[in-house]
Design goal:
The protein is α+β, with helices and mostly antiparallel strands. The protein contains 2 helices and 4 strands; from the N terminus they run E-E-H-H-E-E. The chain has a 4-stranded mixed sheet. Strand 3 and strand 4 form a beta hairpin.
Length: 108
């Protein structure tokens, strides 16, 4: 599956358009990560617990979007974008969306 945040894929031609596909996940913060984050705020540095949580959330949301695109028969998703929103105290949704298409080579 080709994923891109552009409207086209260089060297490829869009031959079928399937429309919007998306994936999301809602994650809550971990108490241990919150404690570590509080300490890092004092001494500085990367909040690795949050970095890991965000990476896992992005990967899960992208995999869900890809699964939906594959079910439609797509082999690429163009115009991929990410969005986040607060759901509740300490919980947030990570949402990814794009346009599912089928591409062939070469572009003409």
């Amino acid at each position: 599956m080709v994923l891109t945040n552009t409207e086209t894929i260089p060297g490829k031609r869009i031959v079928e358009h399937f429309g919007l596909v998306s994936g999301s996940t809602v994650r809550a913060r971990h108490v241990g990560a919150d404690i570590a984050a509080g300490l890092k705020n004092v001494v500085g540095g990367e909040l690795r617990g949050y970095t890991q949580l965000l990476n896992e959330s992005r990967n899960q949301a992208v995999q869900r979007m890809i699964q939906t695109a594959e079910q439609l028969g797509a082999n690429a998703v163009i115009n991929v974008r990410f969005s986040t929103s607060s759901i509740a105290q300490g919980a947030a949704e990570l949402y990814v969306y794009g346009t599912a298409v089928r591409v062939d080579s070469p572009a003409t």
